[in-house]
Amino acid sequence: MTARFNHTIIAATDPAASAAFHRDLLEAEEAPAWGPFVNVLLADGVLLQFASPPMDFPPQHYAYLVDDEHFDRTLARITATSRDHWADPQRSRPGEVKVEGEARGVYLLDPSGHFLELLTRPYL
Known about the structure:
Layout: E1 7-11, H1 15-26, E2 29-30, E3 38-41, E4 47-51, E5 61-65, H2 68-80, E6 98-100, E7 103-109, E8 115-119
């Protein structure tokens, strides 16, 4: 398989705030900004580009695979700041973490209202 994911543009009400939030959450690298984009660099050269579109936008779902140590650090920051989070995408289990065998996951909202998922094991 030769195709690999390279980048995506994420609509944001405040691109700088959204990029900073994702950078902190994902322990990611800052990347140079250009044009309307505030960029965050993930592993394998994947680029998240935050930009403010000229129209309203619906919330999207973004899932990030992290290792157990990263998950623990991030969950500690989420709970220390009393940030809302859920164990399920329906938001029926507030303040909880999804546990399925050795896999853990948590859902939360970013500053623009996008639904983020952090998970420790891939689904496939």
